[in-house]
Amino acid sequence: MREGPGVANHLVDSDEAALTALRAAGLRVTAPRRAVLVWLAKHPHSTVDAISAGVREVLGTVSTQAVYDVLRVCTATGLLR
């Protein structure tokens, strides 16, 4: 199985740090973006399925497409690699 993205900024280890990182990158702060960043800080190199499942535990619902969208925009801005 291919590993997924990792967190480029290892300081994103809490919800507050995710909020700060998203704002610093000029991104709109959303619950899925915050949850994905926190999940990846705790579980680096997770698959999209694992990230989706973990984020669903926190938020209750999130589509796999939404997770892909978060990964794409966070990678494009350098928050993830």
List the helices and strands and how they pair.
Blueprint: H1 15-24, H2 31-42, H3 48-59, H4 64-76
Helix pairs in contact: 1-2, 2-3
Question: Nutshell version of this structure?
Answer:
The protein is mostly helical and 81 residues long.
Give a verbal description of the structure.
With about 80 residues, the chain is mainly α. It has one domain (about 15-75). About 60% of the residues lie in helices and about 0% in strands. It is built from 4 helices and no strands. It has helices at about 15-25, 30-40, 50-60, 65-75. Helix 1 (about 15-25) crosses helix 2 (about 30-40) and helix 2 (about 30-40) packs across helix 3 (about 50-60). It is globular.
Short descriptors:
single chain, 81 residues, mainly alpha, 4 helices
> What's the main sheet like?
none
Counting DSSP H or I runs of 4 or more residues, the number of helices is 4
Mean pLDDT: 86
Oligomer: single chain
